[in-house]
Specification:
about 0% strand
Length: about 50
């Protein structure tokens, strides 16, 4: 059990940042964890 902070990291490699973000979010959506929270805005500013 974790009390805060990072408890799991995911890394995806791709030639495209948008594809990498999509794949990373797909992986994280499949993680089954009670009260799971993950940021979906990572890399967003770069993609503007």
């Amino acid at each position: 059990m974790a009390t805060g902070g990072r408890v799991l990291n995911s890394t995806v490699l791709s030639k495209s940042l948008s594809v990498a973000r999509k794949k990373a979010n797909e992986i994280l959506e499949n993680v089954k964890w009670e009260n799971k929270y993950y940021r979906k805005d990572i890399g967003f500013r770069v993609m503007k």
